[in-house]
Amino acid sequence: MKDESRTIMNGYFSDDGKEINLLIVPLPSLCNSCLKFNKATEEIPCLLNRMDQMEEIRRGAMFCCFAYELIDSPVDK
Fold first, then answer.
1. Three-point CA angle 26, 66, 13, nearest 5°
2. Can you give the three-state secondary structure of the chain, one letter per residue?
3. Contact, 33 vs 27, CB < 8 A?
4. Which pLDDT score, from 0 to 100, does residue 43 have?
5. Residue 68's pLDDT is what?
6. What is this structure's pTM?
7. What is the Cα–Cα distance from 58 to 51, expressed in whole angstroms?
8. Which of 8, 11, 13, 50 is the most exposed place for a label (fewest CB within 10 A)?
9. Which residues in the chain land under pLDDT 50?
10. 65 and 43 in contact (C-beta within 8 Å)?
């Protein structure tokens, strides 16, 4: 007999416990020019940042990403 109280759920969830469909998480245009875009090691942090700002993005508010790095940055790091 399976103990339902110990079921582990997989995926991403909002603060109120609702599962988030990753297909509806918006991708701001800023992400396309980011050095971290499509890097496997950055996928989760980027996704969490976009999920946190989903409603703002949908309303047309400015997307804010403090991890953003321009692909062809003229600044030598």
1. 45
2. CCCHHHCCCCCCECCCCCECCHHHCCCCHHHHHECCCCCHHHHHHHHHHHHHCHHHHHCCCCCCCCCCCECCCCCCC
3. no
4. 93
5. 95
6. 0.75
7. 11
8. 8
9. none
10. no
Radius of gyration over every alpha carbon of the chain, rounded to an integer in angstroms: 16
Backbone angles phi, psi at 70, to 5 degrees: -60, 135
- What is the tens place of the pLDDT at every residue in 47-66? 999 999 999 999 999 999 99
| Beta carbons within 8 Å of 42's beta carbon, 6+ residues apart | 36, 67
Contacts of 54 by beta carbon, 8 Å cutoff, 6+ apart: 24, 25, 26
